[in-house]
Amino acid sequence: MQLSALFRPLALALITVSSAGALFPQAASAGYYGRGAEGWFWYDDPTPVKEEEPKKEEPKKEEPKVIVMKAPPPAEAAPAEAAELPPLSAAWFRENLQVYMDKAIDDPSPENVEAYFLLQRVMMDKAQEFSDVSRSVVMGDPILDESNRRSLDPSTSRLQENLSAKRREEALTRIMDKAGVAFFFSEQCDLCDNQGTYLKLLADRTGIEIMPITLDGKPLKSGAFADTMIMDEGQAAALGIEEGPALYLLAPPDKWIALAHSVVTQEDAVTRILMGAVEAGILSEDELNRTKPVNITPSLAKALPEDGNLPDDPQELIRFLRNLEQR
C-alpha cells in the first residue's frame, strides 16, 4: 500500500481552515445641515452640574466581644466490650501475638519466651495447612493456576516467546495492508535522528511503510528516509506536534492515532502499532491478545455485581465468580 498516494486527501481531511468575516455598518453622524434649527450659535456649553461632596461616614464603634464559655460535652458512655475473638484465629493472632512477643522481650523469663514461640508455632502450622490446601485447589484449574498463563519451565517459556514473536509479525503484516506509520522529525533534533535509525531497521525487517514528515524541510542528519521524506503541510499543527520525534498510526481515510512522542525501540514500536491497530479497528482484542507471550484467561476484575453485594456463603460466592468466567 502506498501511503504517499493517500497522504494528501488524508491531510486535507485532517486540516480544516475556517474563515469568516463580518461587516458592521456605522451610523453617520449628523452634520451642520441636519442641525439647522440651532442656528449659527450651535455650540452650547452644557449646564454645569454641581457635584455633591460625599458624606463622611462616622466610624462604627466596635462593641466588646462577648466570649461565651460552653460547658464541655458530656462524656460518651463507654462502648460495650467488643465481642471476644475466637482463640488462636487469624484475627486473634493479629491482635495478640505482638503482645506476647513484647512481653517475652521485656521480661524474657523461660515461661514468657516459651509461650511466645509456642504461639508462633501454632500460627506457622496454620499457614502451612493453608498453603497445602491452596496448592491442591489451584493445581489444574485453568483460571487459578498461574502456570497456565505463563509457564515456569524455562524451555516452555522461551517457546511462548517465539510463538508470540511469530504472531506479532503476522499481525503486523495484516496491518501493513491498511495502515502505515507517520514519523515527524526535524534536522536539529538529535532524538529524531536516533528514532529514524530504529524505524529504518524496522522497515527493512518487516516491510512496514514509514511516512517521514519533515517539520523544517530538512532531512535527518543520518540521511535516513532522505529519498522518501515529505514536507509538513499543517498536519503537525493540527495534531498538536511542536517538535519531534512523534509517531502516529496513519489509517486512511482520516485516522491519526498517536503512538509515541519520544524515542521507542523496534519492539516497543511494534507493540504500540498493534495497540493502535486495535483502536483503529484493524485488529480485534482477541487478535492482540494472541500476540502476547502469555495465555490471556477470562478476567474476573469486574466481579462486583450491580447491587454491590457479594454472597456470604462460600459455595454461592464460588458459583457467582465461576459464572463470570463463562461470560
Description:
This protein has 327 residues and is an alpha/beta fold. Helix 2 runs antiparallel to helix 3 and helix 4 packs across helix 7. A five-stranded mixed beta sheet has the order 3-2-1-4-5, sandwiched between helices. The model is unreliable at 16-43 and 77-82 (pLDDT under 50). It has helices at 3-14, 90-106, 110-138, 154-176, 190-206, 235-239, 266-279, 285-289, 314-325, and strands at residues 180-185, 210-214, 230-231, 246-251, 255-260. Among the domains are: 90-138; 171-289, Glutaredoxin (3-Layer(aba) Sandwich), CATH 3.40.30.10. It has nine helices and five strands; from the N terminus they run H-H-H-H-E-H-E-E-H-E-E-H-H-H. Strand 1 (180-185), helix 5 (190-206) and strand 2 (210-214) form a beta-alpha-beta unit.
